Structure formats: C-alpha cells, structure tokens
Amino acid sequence: MLKKAAEEALNKPSPYGIDLRIEDFLKPRASSSMGLEALSSIGIDPESASYIQVDNRPVEVRPSIPGVKVLTLSQALEEGLVQDYFWNAVKVDTDKYTAAAELFGGHEGYVFIAERGRKVEQPVLSCLLLSTPGSLQAPHNIVIVEEGAELHVITGCLTSAEAPGLHAGISEFYVKEGGRLTFTMIHQWAPTSHVRPRTGVIVERGGEYVSHYINMSPIASLQTDPKVYLVGEGAKAYLSSVIVAPRESKMDVGGSVFLRAENTSAEIVSKVITKDRADVITRSLISAEGRGARGHIECDGLLLSDSSRILTLPALDAKIDDVQLSHEAAVGRLSEEQLYYLMTKGFSEEEAKSILVRGFMEVKIEGLPRPVEAQLKMALELAARGL
Amino acid sequence: MLKKAAEEALNKPSPYGIDLRIEDFLKPRASSSMGLEALSSIGIDPESASYIQVDNRPVEVRPSIPGVKVLTLSQALEEGLVQDYFWNAVKVDTDKYTAAAELFGGHEGYVFIAERGRKVEQPVLSCLLLSTPGSLQAPHNIVIVEEGAELHVITGCLTSAEAPGLHAGISEFYVKEGGRLTFTMIHQWAPTSHVRPRTGVIVERGGEYVSHYINMSPIASLQTDPKVYLVGEGAKAYLSSVIVAPRESKMDVGGSVFLRAENTSAEIVSKVITKDRADVITRSLISAEGRGARGHIECDGLLLSDSSRILTLPALDAKIDDVQLSHEAAVGRLSEEQLYYLMTKGFSEEEAKSILVRGFMEVKIEGLPRPVEAQLKMALELAARGL
Q: What sequence ranges are listed for the domain SUF system FeS cluster assembly SufBD core (chains A, B) (predicted)?
C-alpha cells in the first residue's frame, strides 16, 4: 500500500520551490568521509548526542536519558512501537520527496518516545549528517510525547562543503493530551545542497508544540512548510524561524497551523535576513475552524544587500466567525536613524550594524529549560557571526 | 495581431477564481428590458451620467463637463485618440476574459480624457448595465489624465436580478506626469452574475492614482485583481476596497501595485464583511524595486456569520534593500466587549452592531472633492444598509 502510493507520487512536484529530479541523487559519487567533529560548527557536541545518523545509517544511539525511549526507526518498527505513527502525520504521497524517502531513504531515522507524565528536562540531541557527495539522505523521524509528558528535542543537520546532495527528512511528531514538545532544528548545509524536509505535527487536547528553526548558511535550494494540526481543545503552537540567507541561496520556507479544535491558538514568527544575491520566500498560514481559535503571524525581513530579495506571503483563513486572526509584517533594510543614533553613542558603523541585526534576530524563547535556551542562543549567535 | 493573440488566449483560465466557459455567455436568452432608473439603487442619478452603456451598446454620451473629452471607444478609435492606449495597460491575452472582451465584447466602452493641466472638480459619472439575460458584457474603457490634470471618475455597474450574465470590463487608465486620477467603482450585480473585470493602471512621474472599490451585493462569482504600475519617480497609489459579501457569494478580489521607480509609494486597504455562506478571498501585492519605495497593506475581515469564510493573502515583495514594506491584518467577528459597552450606553444590540459595522467599513477618503466624497459615503451607507 505505502510502496504503491509512494511509487505513484514519485514524479509529483511540490507546489512550491525549485523542482528536482530524484534520479540525480540516487548515484552517489564517492564514499563518506565526514567527521563528527563538524557538529561543533553548529554548537553541538557529538558526545552528548542521543542519536547520530550519517547519510542513511544510524551511527550512534544512546538511550541514556531517563524517561525517554531512544531508538532507530527500524528498531521501533520491529518492536511494534510506531505502527500507528509511521506515515500518519505526513502522507507518503505528499510529493516526490516523501515518495523518495519511502522508496530510497533506507527506513532509518530517530524515534524518541517521552513516557507518560514525565517532564524530561534534559534535551535530547540528534544529529543528521549528509556525507556522501551527490546522495539522497532521507531520515524518517518519529517523536511521541505521551500524555502529560514534556520533551525537548534539538536536531542539528549539516553537510560538509564538499558533499552536496538532497536531504529529504521526514518528521512526524505526536503530542498527546497535556503533553509538550519543544523542537529546535539547526540547519547548516553546503551551498550546493538541496533540502526538502517534510514535517507533520498532531497536537491533542491541551497539548503544546513549540518549534524553533534556524538556518545559518548558504544553500542551493530549501523548501519546507511544516504542517501543525491542533486537533484537541486548547492545543497550542508557537513556530519561530530565523533564516539567514547569504550568497546564491534560494529558500522557500513556511509554516502552516490548522486550528481544528475549540480554543486552540497559534503564533508563527519569522525573521529573514538576506545578503548577496539570496532569494527568500516565506509563507505562513493560520487556518481556523475551531470556536474561540486565535492566531497571529509575524514576518520580518531585513535585506542586507541591494540584489537580494524577500517575498513574504502570509495567509489568514477564517472558516467560522468566532475566531481572531491577525498578522503583521515589515520588510526593509536597517533603519538609518537607528544606525546613526548608535554611532553618535560611540559605536563604529560595523558594531552598530551588528547590534541592530542581533536585535532583529531576537525571538521569544521563554519557557525553555536552561540547556535548550543556551543551545538556541548559541545557534543564533553563530548565525549572527556569519553576517 | 490583437485578434490572433486573443484567439490563442480564449481558453486560458485566470490563475485565480472560478473558471467559466465563455461559450455559455454567447447565447443571450432574451432581449434587454432593464430601466435606467435602477441606477438609483447604487446612488447614481442617470440624468447626471456622462456615459451610460447597456450590455455592449452606449446609450448616453454627454460630453458636457469642461476640460474632459467624453467619447465612446469606437469614436475614440476612429478619431485616432487612443491607438497607443488600447490594450496597452492590460494585455489582450491575459486570460480568456480579456480575449473574450476583444473577440465578442463589441468594442465599446467609455473614453475620458482630462485635458493637460485641467483640474476637473466635477466627477464624471459612467454607468454600465448588464441587461440581457445570459449574455456577455465586455465594455473596454480608457481613461487618460494628461500632464498635470486631475480627474474623478465614478462608475456604477449593475444588473437586474433577472439578468444573470458575465461582465468582463476592461479598464486601462493612464496618469501622466503630475496628474491625478480618482476612480470610484460601485458594483451591484445579481446573485447569479459572474464578474471578471480586468484593470491596468500606468502612473508616470509624480502622478497619483486613488481607487475606491465597493461591492454591495450577492454575486455568483467575482474575480478581480487590478494592477497598478508606478513607473515614474514619486508616483503614488492608494487602493481601498469595501466588500460586503452576503448569501452564497464567491469573491476573489485583489489589488497589485508595482513600485518600479524611485520614491514611489502605495497603500492597499481592504475591508471585507461576510454574511450567510459567503466565501471571500482577498489578495494584495506590493512589489518594490525602486529605491526609496514605500508600501503598506492593510486587510481587515469581519465575519457576521458562522458559515462564511474569509481568506486573506497579502504579499510583500522586496527586490532591493532600500524599500520599506509593511502589512497588517485582522480577521474575526465583532468585538463582544465593544458591543457590550455600547449596549450599556443604551443602544439596542441591533443599533450597537450597526454602529460597529459602519465603523469597520470606514476608509480614508481624504482629498476627494465634496461631490465624490458624498457619492462614496452614500455608496457605503447603502452597502451598510444591506447588512
């Protein structure tokens, strides 16, 4: 069934983003050579990771955090732990990238399950490295936060500069009643990489999903639009993205939240910085059909070069009257007045710019446990340094 | 050339809105029977109109306003006055509706030309009535505001309830250096009408285009997205729409402004009220590629029924760094607190609702000469009464 659906979708392009030929990524050009120490460039110590995958092969699985099951996908499937979750929040025939993940991705990825009622303070780290030039990496990850549990996942994805390829990571997240999942993803690909993550999140009654997405580096093309379904009363979502797009980067990034139950709420915040000749499109959607639903979208774009471009496309969809949706956006360059003001206070132009850019990149990170907050701040700091 | 391009585009659907078969509107079902007195329902006195067209036939042409040439399109083409303007701001092969207008529309419509340097205070009224059931009405209108001139055009479009059909009005507006055109359009179609206006506006250096669009009545389907090109330094555009969508109305309404020259600026404001089972999509785009360009989009939606829907899709496209674009949107129902507050002040619930709805519908109408402002206020008042 899955295989047939995937085969039929293998030529189905994504509605957005540059279309790629899957065949081009099925003939890897050389064997892997990337060292795990590269992880430090995104602020991750490989020794502390619970899960490390290189290309399509898990190389470290450390189930050492109390309250969290850590497995590879193949183990979890074998043990019958994820049958109901496998291709349930993301459809296998969404497009050619989901199809390719199923057919050629190797059926690996991380599975994290937070035990019922457990508030796991320590973040679970996972690392995905694309190492073999010209290859397809398609981890299939599943995270389950059982009733009343709390989990923090930090994922770092990266490629060595010499190893362009296609990353099509499938992530399916399930937050049960009263649960809370915080997911922080830090991307650092090569300027020749193509990245097509496909993420689906289902949040039940009173549950909460918080996501922070950070992209720090130039990339050939990125297209992502995680979909969050709030299906239980009072469920909440907060999605923030900080995108730094230098060089020739082409990024089409989004986030959609579907408020399907009463008193659900969502906030989508994106900050985009472009440099050089980067071209970034940000899409966001809040669709509301639950009574008392509330949603807010905020998009801010900062162009640091004359030949870069930012197109921001937010959407508010009210399907019944008893909802409240709002949106704010601002796109432009650094404020001359603010720059001037800082310079009159004794800062150099360079310093003043840096202060304003860092201020621009600030996102709400309240409610995170200290180690996650520290990780996030470090990632933002590293991203700022690239400017 | 035009004919060939039109023939080739005759099956080209619009990217948005419900697709129609042109053939279905080429076999009118009976002869015209609509009286001009129907115009009073949209606040227009037919005696004061400079141009009245019923179906595809001009029935009144009164060139009595000093400083403005008033002609039919066929006259203007014959006199060689609009050769450079005909299908220049709107392309004949935009889609099947522009193609159908060229091939089957009868080559009629109004042509208004404001003489160089003339500030015409008195508004020029035009009326377009769709009278023959099941027919295609496709007026092709051209307005030229010569250098330094100022003109106000008010257009009322309506159909009798018994005469559904397809209206595909082509409007091409040219505002020359330092000129100013204010265009107020009031639509009142039948619940069975399909409406596909196609409008293009070219504004030169220091020129200004102000548009007010009001749709007051149920409609089978409406799809419109006027495109305004600011091609001269310092040109400005202000577009406001007030859409009241009752019953089964399906509307896909938009507005796009292209800031192509230095220090151009634009504001797009839309207010949408839905009732019953109406479904409204509002699109707006500000695309900026001129240094120092400034743009702002504001979309407000008010749902007065549980089973209606509003989808708002604004877009900001910054193509260079030295631009400043912003956007705000809010969609929801009437504020309970405000209603309650007014009721504590002695208003009935009905009155309180009416006050808040009228407040919601307010748009900036500054800078209009008194007769235009009065006309606009009357139209808004009539629209509010329908609620």
A: 132-360
